[in-house]
Design brief:
With 125 residues, this protein is α+β, with helices and mostly antiparallel strands. Helices cover 18% and strands 38% of the residues. The chain is built from two helices and eight strands, in the order E-H-E-E-E-E-H-E-E-E. The protein has an eight-stranded mixed beta sheet with strand order 2-3-4-1-5-8-7-6, with helices on one face.
Amino acid sequence: MGQPVVHFEIIGADPQRLHSYYGELFGWEFDTSGGVAESVSAAGNYGFVQNPDGAGIPGGVGGGAGYPHRVLFYIGVPDVEAALRKAESLGGTRTMGPEQAPGSALVVGHFTDPEGHLIGVAATA
């Protein structure tokens, strides 16, 4: 496999309701103390899924009023800017980034593919 999926997100208008829903449905617990880029989720609303046994990929649930509803996955890349430029050169459209999460080395970006699917890319600075 080339570059792997490294993270997923579920973003909606009512993050607390989504935390409750997915917590009940799948037994997920959330840590809302980490920072994310403001364009991804309102501060304090993003909950990283806790994964104490290390199974699966990391993810988060967040958003807030005015955030577009979406389910999104992130591909790990060496350089977010380079990945976004390549996506554009192949017919995709950059929609965000690169942006660095506050207090973190994580850099993310979003693009849509030629059919309009939203995809994320992520790297460490």
